[in-house]
Amino acid sequence: MKFPFEFGVTLVFRLIFPGLVLAVAFLPLATALLDALSIDSAAATTIPALTVVFGWMVVMADQPIYMLYEGRRYWPSFLKKYWEARQRKRLNKLVDLRAELDKPPAQRKPEYKDLKRVEVSFRMLDYALDDDGERTITSPTRMGNLIDAYETYSETSYGMDSIFYWPRIWLAADKDIRDALDQTQAIADSALYVSFSIACAAPLLLFYLVLELLPYEWPVAPVVLPFVPPPGWTALFAAVCLAMAYWVYRVGLYPQGQYGELFKALIDQSLDKLAFIETAVRRAVNEGNDPVAAREESYLTAARYLRWHKIKPPGTRLPGESKTYTPESWKKRTTAP
Known about the structure:
The chain is mostly helical. The protein has 15 helices and two strands.
């Protein structure tokens, strides 16, 4: 769940690091293009300009980047199934390990005697809860499971849709709290953005390698890219970029988890500030909502009424009818001859 960005240190932190990575990767191509256009291409001026441009592009692509790393979009089905199986295997291993640690110390396997149960339980917080209160797999990646775990916390604990209520909780929070949370999330965002930028640099380096190894010249003029190392080093740097992208992603899981705990804490501390819920529920009941269900599911009732302008009226319904109606459609149904 994303905060509204504010222009400040945190936005610069999100922008500069990934932008610099992409600026360095695109420098040979940009320099060659500027030279072809007879434009000054000094690295001292080109790199800062490219840093801002590419950094801005990465920040604007925040949602697609997160969807990619969470495994929600852009994944081939066979690859998604494979990594889901790996996540399921990891979770099952944690469950078995916790069961082993529930035994008295004298009955544990020797390799588990020094391992603490709280450490294993903490790792299991990376996974969301199912309807039975058990940890479950919801994504093919650790990042996706971790984010889903804290984003579904409000629904599991209070029946509150975090997508609807989070902007309202954010606006109700004090500025100091918002700043602290934004700084924590900026670190998590920066790690993910940098990982994505480094991963993008790898195929670009391979493109440079292909140009270097072409056995012929272009029809107009040979390709000359400055700052490109010899082919062997270019291939090595491409491999290093892929390894570094994965390493930065794995390191970024820790600040993401820290932000997730603060995310959940703010929800817990902000429930009494959502005064509009009572008004929304009362209006929904007046429009024809089931009074008992509205009070039992006040967060759901308020979100349904305010977002979709729908109510859940009492009484029986005809086969095939929806469980929810707009107030207008419900009145037409009840007054129809």
